[in-house]
Hints:
Blueprint: H1 2-10, E1 39-43, E2 46-49, E3 55-60, E4 67-68, E5 73-77, H2 80-122, H3 128-168, E6 170-172, E7 177-182, E8 189-190, E9 205-208, E10 213-217
Antiparallel strand pairs: 1-10, 2-9, 3-5, 3-8, 4-7, 5-6, 7-9
Amino acid sequence: AVGAGGWWYANRTLVVEVRTATAREVRLGQPTTVLNASGYVTARRMATVSSKVTGRVSEILIEEGMKVEEGQLLATLDTSNIDANLRLAEAELAAAKTLLAETDVRLLEAELDLDRIRPLFDRGVVAKAELDRSRANYDSLDARIKQQHDQINVAESRLLLWEQELADRKIRAPFAGVVVAKNAQPGEMISPMSAGGSFTRTGIGTIVDMSSLEIEVDVNESYINRVVDDQRIVA
């Protein structure tokens, strides 16, 4: 009996207990990389600042790495000729206004004279020739007043023209940003257009709007299907 029991125990069929579990994907900290690519940090808003006119640089107020605000003065061009013409235009305008004031006084005097002669002519005290002379003098001065007003308008327009010429010699920042390049020095000639092989500069410096920085990445055509809208990136 003992031998039979031993043989049965040694040859019995073992039942293995099996437990089931649901498999889940495990992410370790960072998301799985979909695509690795290299690129460049660039600015959408960048400008090489130049002047509207050709001239000699008299002062440079920028340095590389300097922050500037919109409208800030960056450089000035030589204005010696402009200053002289501006003073001449101011003098011409002042002279035209003075002449107009004198003519106004003479016109008032002619009007008073005409008002005195007209009733005298009605009573037959003075001849018609005297009335005609007084009326002609008044009309002449009135026409001169209109002409002098036109002259003042011309003088004011000429003054505005030279003031604009002076403003064009002052180079200002088109927007706020950082100066990344200084391309001119005092004494050099600068022009808004390239002179083709000459020593004339086409700009005083380059400004970059740091708020417009973006990353440009080149993606191979075979990986373009991995790029989707609003995809998260890690730089």
